[in-house]
Amino acid sequence: MNSNNNYKALLIDLDGTLLDLDIQQFIDAYIDALSDRFIEHLDKKDFAEQLFGATSVMVKNDDPGKSNEEVFYTDFCRRIGLSEKEIKPVVKDFYDNDFPRLNCWAREHPRADAVIKAAKDRNLTLVLATNPIFPAAAILERLSWSGFTEKDFTFITTMENMHFCKPRIEYYREIADIINCPPEMCLMAGNDTLEDLVAAKAGMDTFLVDDFILQRDENEPVCDYRGSLEDLAAFLATSG
Ligand SMILES: [Mg+2]
């Protein structure tokens, strides 16, 4: 643990941390809307199964030579019998035109601003460490629902630019490499007791943001710090 709190980087999760998102309603509406686009090829239930299947393969991938996007499309195309060339324009159009409407399941978090401001005041390298299972278009759109833009962050993890997903330790190591910051100088803040707190295994300090905590099991979560997003803002403003 970095007891001096002299961090150089803040990694922060999006869904349920910076953004108040009704995750179950959002996922259901997302699958429903995306499957509509492929209805002439396969029914909705089958589409959802293949999407979850390919996502699961991507999340488990441990080949540093393949981006998450490559792993996903290789598997997804094989599953649904369409080529990447056929799928990608449909997906792009979906993200451009349908996805923005899913913002009805999201609300800005009233304390998110204070966290980003405190991190900027401390000159921390800011990383949006959202699970990179979505393309950049979908992540930037959700980021806009939280009241921020790409410009607020030094680096944003997406399926195109990352080779690992949460909860792999390699995901956090890859971020540390990219921003050129030792893991010991990074603080990872998020609401998920597994996917976000696993950053500790990469050597990072962890702050469990418990406004919308996603508790994965019955065990008491192990983290360096815990509190609301408001507490995180205060912690960043007063320490270091
Ligand atoms: Mg989250």
Structure in words:
With 240 residues, this protein is an alpha/beta fold. The chain has two domains: 9-21 and 106-238, 3-Layer(aba) Sandwich (Rossmann fold), CATH 3.40.50.1000; 24-103. The chain is 41% helix and 12% strand. It has eight helices and eight strands. The strands form two sheets. It has a six-stranded parallel β-sheet with strand order 5-4-1-6-7-8, covered by helices on one side. Strands 2-3 form a two-stranded antiparallel ribbon. Helix 6 (136-145) links the parallel strand 4 (125-128) and strand 5 (155-156). Helix 1 crosses helix 2, helix 2 (44-60) runs antiparallel to helix 3 and helix 5 packs parallel to helix 8. The longest helix has 17 residues, at 44-60. The radius of gyration is 18 Å and the shape is globular. The two termini are 14 Å apart. The mean pLDDT is 96. Bound molecules: magnesium ion. Magnesium ion binds at residues 13, 15-17, 190-192.
What's the level 1 CATH class of the largest domain? Answer: Alpha Beta
Number of strands: 8
Structural class comes to alpha/beta
What radius of gyration results from the CA coordinates?
18 Å
Biggest beta-sheet profile: 6 strands, parallel
CATH superfamily of the largest domain: HAD superfamily/HAD-like
- Chain-averaged pLDDT: 96
Task: Give helix and strand order, one letter per element, not per position.
Answer: EEHHHHEHEHEHEEEH
- Poorly predicted ranges: none
Stated plainly, the CATH topology of the largest domain is called Rossmann fold
Rounded to the nearest angstrom, the distance between the terminal CA atoms is 14 Å
- Biggest sheet strand order reads 5-4-1-6-7-8
Kindly report the oligomeric state of this protein. single chain
What's the number of structural domains? Answer: 2
**Cofactors, ions and other ligands in the entry:** magnesium ion
Q: In percent, how much strand structure appears in the residues? A: 5-15%
Range of helix content? 40-55%
